[in-house]
Amino acid sequence: MGFFVYLLSLFLYFTFFGLQTVCGNSELRVLMDMKAVLDPENRILSSWTSDGNPCSGSFEGVACNEHGKVANISLQGKRLSGKVPSAVAGLKWLSGLYLHYNSLSGEIPKEISNLTQLSDLYLNVNSLSGSIPSEIENMASLEVLQLCCNQLTGSIPTQLGSLKKLSFLALQSNRLMGAIPASLGNLRTLVRLDLSYNRLFGAIPVRLADVPYLKVLDVRNNTLSGSVPPALKRLKGGFQYGNNSGLCGVGFSSLEVCTASTNMNPNKPESFGPGTNGGITKDIPESANIRPHCNNTHCSNRSKSPQIGVVFGVIAVIVTLKSVAGLLVFSWYRRRKQKIASALETTDSRLSIDQAKEVYRKSASPLSNLEYSNGWDPLADGRNGNWFSQEGMQSFRFNLDEVVSATQYFSEVNLLGKSNFSAIYKGILRDGSVVAIKSINKSSCKLEESEFLKGLNILTSLRHENLVGLRGFCCSSGRGECFLIYDFVPNGNLLQYLDVKDGNGQVLEWSIRVSIINGIAKGIEYLHSHKVNKPALVHQNISAEKVLIDQQFNPLLSDSGLHNLLADDIVFSKLKACAAMGYLAPEYTTTGRFTEKSDMYAFGVIVFQILSGKRKITQSMQLGAESCRFEDFIDPNLEGNFSESEAAKLARIALICTHDSPNQRLTMETVIQELGKCSSSTHDSPNHRLTMKIVIQELGKCSSSS
Question: Where would I find the Protein kinase domain in this sequence (predicted)?
Answer without folding.
Answer: 410-691
